[in-house]
């Protein structure tokens, strides 16, 4: 078993386990009626098709763009590598996500093609977002972890919110999105806080539990200006609500499909 192996280095017969970004996920059914998940996982080196047989969730289309932990075997099918997944799950520990993402930047920033591979976005989409001022431009054509997480945050929220509202939400904590000077929270930290809270979503079924979890998550956050903590708390709560709404829509569509 090899852990966190780069996709570009995988070969047929490899048994792997690691954290990757879920680029695409589609719930499908075989000819004999059994459910399975058709997916694409990605890291900064490339993408890999994956199949999870006899699987009906909970990981699904609403999790696209988020990190997942997978374990499985690489094989060759019709001349291309693919992963037969034994286990797939959402990340339960934000620290693991943070460590994995940070490791990707040990050699410096990411070029556009790596960002596109990791997020599942077309390169021209990322360039368009930079041009429209959704994030600062890359320096020497390289994107930082902070910029990558801004892109992931925007892409994740697109399932339930229009771009204009997403940018308004992020501006509520970070002012001008093309300038980090007025930010009250690093976008990478905002994303990792979101992952930590999203992993506990099923346990937080009452408003007071959400408030407690939010307070615990922000315990070591130091306000750069008065009122910053409350702004971050509000934005996190909206991000989580939007993410849960997209998951509910996914479940609704599955139930509607079952009526056919």
Secondary structure layout plus pairing:
Blueprint: E1 2-3, E2 15-29, E3 35-43, E4 46-53, E5 67-77, E6 80-90, H1 94-103, H2 112-119, H3 123-131, H4 145-157, H5 163-174, H6 187-198, H7 207-217, H8 228-258
Parallel strand pairs: 1-2, 4-6
Antiparallel strand pairs: 2-3, 2-5, 3-4, 5-6
Question: What is this structure, in a nutshell?
Answer:
The chain contains eight helices and six strands; from the N terminus they run ββββββαααααααα. The chain has 260 residues and is of the alpha/beta class. Strands 2-3-4-6-5 form a five-stranded mixed beta barrel.
How would you explain this protein's 3D organization?
A 5-stranded mixed beta barrel has the order 2-3-4-6-5. A hairpin with a 5-residue loop joins strand 2 and strand 3. It has 2 domains: 2-90, OB fold (Dihydrolipoamide Acetyltransferase, E2P) (Beta Barrel); 94-251, no CATH class. With 260 residues, the protein is α/β, with parallel strands linked by helices. It has helices at residues 94-103, 112-119, 123-131, 145-157, 163-174, 187-198, 207-217, 228-258; strands at residues 2-3, 15-29, 35-43, 46-53, 67-77, 80-90. The longest helix is centred in the last third of the chain and has 31 residues, at 228-258.
Mean pLDDT across the residues is: 87
Give the termini separation. Answer: 42 Å
Strand order of the largest sheet: 2-3-4-6-5
Number of strands: 6
Largest sheet: 5 strands, mixed, barrel
Indicate the structural class: alpha/beta
How many individual helices?
8
* Residue share in helix: 40-55%
Strand content: 15-25%
Rg (C-alpha, Å): 19 Å
Number of domain modules = 2
Order of helices and strands: EEEEEEHHHHHHHH
Q: Using the alpha-carbon principal axes, give the shape.
A: globular
Low-pLDDT parts are none
């Amino acid at each position: 078993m090899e852990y966190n192996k780069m996709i570009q280095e995988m070969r047929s017969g490899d048994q792997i386990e690691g954290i990757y970004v879920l680029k695409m996920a589609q719930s499908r059914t075989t000819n004999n009626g059994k459910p399975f998940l058709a997916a694409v996982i990605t890291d900064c080196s490339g993408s890999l098709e994956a199949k999870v047989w006899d699987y009906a969730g909970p990981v699904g289309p609403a999790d696209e763009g988020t990190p997942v932990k997978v374990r499985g075997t690489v094989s060759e099918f019709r001349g291309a590598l693919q992963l037969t997944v034994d286990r797939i799950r959402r990340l339960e520990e934000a620290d693991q996500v943070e460590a994995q993402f940070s490791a990707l930047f040990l050699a410096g920033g990411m070029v556009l093609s790596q960002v596109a591979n990791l997020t599942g976005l077309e390169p021209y989409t990322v360039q368009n977002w930079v041009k429209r001022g959704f994030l600062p431009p890359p320096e020497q054509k390289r994107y930082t972890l902070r910029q990558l997480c801004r892109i992931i945050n925007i892409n994740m929220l697109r399932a339930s919110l229009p771009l204009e509202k997403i940018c308004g939400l992020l501006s509520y904590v970070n002012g001008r999105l093309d300038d980090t000077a007025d930010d009250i929270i690093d976008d990478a930290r905002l994303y990792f806080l979101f992952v930590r809270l999203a992993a506990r979503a099923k346990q937080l079924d009452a408003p007071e539990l959400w408030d407690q979890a939010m307070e615990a998550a922000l315990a070591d956050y130091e306000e750069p200006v008065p009122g910053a903590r409350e702004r971050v708390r509000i934005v996190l709560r909206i991000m989580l609500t939007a993410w849960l709404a997209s998951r509910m829509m996914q479940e609704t569509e599955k139930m509607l499909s079952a009526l056919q």
